[in-house]
Amino acid sequence: MPATMTESLQISPLVAEEVRAWLGRRRITQTALARALGLSQPAVSNRLKGTTPFDVNELATTAQLLDIPLERLLGPLMKMTPEELRIASEVRLPHLDSNQKPAG
Prior knowledge:
There is one protein chain. By secondary structure, the protein is mostly helical. The chain has a single domain, classed as lambda repressor-like DNA-binding domains (434 Repressor (Amino-terminal Domain)), CATH 1.10.260. Helix content is about 65%, strand content about 0%. The chain contains 7 helices and no strands.
């Protein structure tokens, strides 16, 4: 069954975290990624925060820029069981605007 937009938005932070980690390992900037993807830097920032999901073509281009197999960017998802994926897709992460701070 294909993932819904809601499911992809809940899983996208996991993918974004992996992309951020690989960018750091390769010392590639958001600006360089934006240039490779043909996107604005704010659009890439939203993808790296997990608020906008990467599409498959963007992930393929990102993997090529990083010189890694696409599967590496999906690493956390590839290791999850179907039940874990279902739970991850149902988790609702708190949304904070720029004037809010996390509780605690």
